[in-house]
Design brief:
It is a single chain. With 262 residues, the chain is of the alpha/beta class. The protein has one domain: 3-Layer(aba) Sandwich (Rossmann fold), CATH 3.40.50.300. It is built from twelve helices and six strands. The protein has a six-stranded parallel sheet with strand order 3-2-4-1-5-6, sandwiched between helices. Helix 8 links the parallel strand 5 and strand 6. Bound molecules: adenosine-5'-triphosphate and magnesium ion. Adenosine-5'-triphosphate (ATP) binds next to helix 1 and helix 10.
Length: 262
C-alpha cells in the first residue's frame, strides 16, 4: 500500500452528549498507534475528557486548542508527544477556556471564522497517518470548524431509544458545510456503541441505524462494558487498562476496520 502523504482527518462527531465520542476517539487512537501508525488526537471539547483520558492532568495543561484558535499559537506548539506511554500517540490538549473560544471567534471581524482550525492544522498534517478530532456535544462554531477541517466523519450512535434523534439535524449541518466550506467532507463510518446483548432494544436500534446508513455502519459493534467506563479515570486507553476485556477486543477490531477502510 502506498504511504499516505497527508493524514486523513477524522472527526468523531454527534451533538448528542454521552454517546461514546471520546471513548471511541481515545481507544481508536491508542490501537492505531500500537499498530505502528502515527496518530494525533485533537481534543476540541472544553470538557477535556480526551485530555484527561490519556493521562494528562487537566489542571496542569497550560496551552491547548484555545491558544491555537484565539491566540494564533502554532498548532505544533501545543502537541504533547507519546501520551499514555504509547509511542506514536500524540495529543493536542484542550483546556476549559476553550468554552470561551466560540464567543471570541463570533465577535471577531473574521469572515473566515469557520476555517480557523483548518488553517491551523495544515502544518501538522504531513506528520501523521491519522488525525482524530474529538468533538464537543454541540453544533456550535467549534463543531463547524471541526467539520470544515476534516476529511471524514465517524459518528458514534448509542444503542438506546431515540438513537437517531438529532441525526437529521447533524446531517443537514454536514450538508451545508459540504456545499459551502468543505466539499471533500464525507461521512466515513457510523459506530454503534454501548450495545447491550441482553436487550431486544439494541437489536431494534441496530437494524434502524443500518436501514438509515447502510454500509457506512461499522461491522464491529461496541458492547456496553464497565471496563471501558473505568479506564478514563486511570488516564488509560482500554488497551492498557484491561486489554482482555470485551471492550478492548471491540475497539481493537474497530481499529482494524478503520485501517482497512479509511
Ligand atoms: N461501550 C461503553 N460501555 C460502557 N460505558 C461506556 C461505553 N462507552 C462510553 N462509556 C461511558 O459513557 C460515558 C459517555 O461516554 P463518552 O464520554 O465517550 O461520550 P461522549 O459522546 O464523548 O460524551 P460528551 O458528549 O459529553 O463528550 C462515559 O462515562 C464513558 O466512560
Ligand atoms: Mg466527549
Amino acid at each position: 500500500m502506498a504511504t499516505k502523504r497527508e493524514a486523513r482527518i477524522l472527526a468523531v462527531v454527534n451533538q448528542k452528549g454521552g454517546v461514546g465520542k471520546t471513548t471511541t476517539a481515545v481507544n481508536l487512537c491508542a490501537y492505531l498507534a500500537q499498530a505502528g501508525k502515527r496518530v494525533l488526537l485533537v481534543d476540541c471539547d472544553p470538557q477535556s475528557n480526551a485530555t484527561s483520558g490519556v493521562g494528562l492532568d487537566k489542571a496542569a495543561v497550560t496551552t491547548g486548542l484555545y491558544d491555537v484558535l484565539v491566540e494564533n499559537v502554532p498548532f505544533a506548539d501545543i502537541i504533547v508527544k507519546d501520551v499514555a506511554d504509547i509511542k506514536g500517540f500524540d495529543l493536542a490538549p484542550s483546556t476549559i477556556d476553550l468554552s470561551g473560544a466560540e464567543m471570541v471567534l463570533y465577535t471577531e471581524q473574521n469572515f473566515a471564522r469557520e476555517s480557523v482550525l483548518a488553517r491551523a492544522m495544515k502544518d501538522v498534517r504531513g506528520t501523521y497517518d491519522y488525525i482524530f478530532i474529538d468533538a464537543p456535544p454541540s453544533l456550535g462554531l467549534i463543531t463547524i470548524n471541526i467539520l470544515t477541517a476534516s476529511s471524514g466523519l465517524i459518528i458514534p450512535i448509542q444503542c438506546e431509544y431515540y438513537a437517531l434523534e438529532g441525526i437529521s439535524q447533524l446531517l443537514s449541518v454536514v450538508e451545508r458545510i459540504q456545499e459551502r466550506l468543505n466539499t471533500a467532507l464525507s461521512i466515513d463510518m457510523v459506530v454503534l456503541t454501548m450495545q447491550d446483548y441482553r436487550t431486544n432494544l439494541s437489536q431494534q436500534v441496530i437494524s434502524d441505524v443500518r436501514d438509515y446508513f447502510g454500509d457506512k455502519v461499522a461491522r464491529t459493534l461496541i458492547p456496553r462494558n464497565v471496563r471501558l467506563s473505568e479506564a478514563p479515570s486511570y488516564g488509560q486507553p482500554i488497551s492498557l487498562y484491561d486489554a482482555k476485556s470485551k471492550g478492548a477486543a471491540a475497539y481493537a477490531q474497530l481499529a482494524k476496520e478503520v485501517i482497512e477502510k479509511l
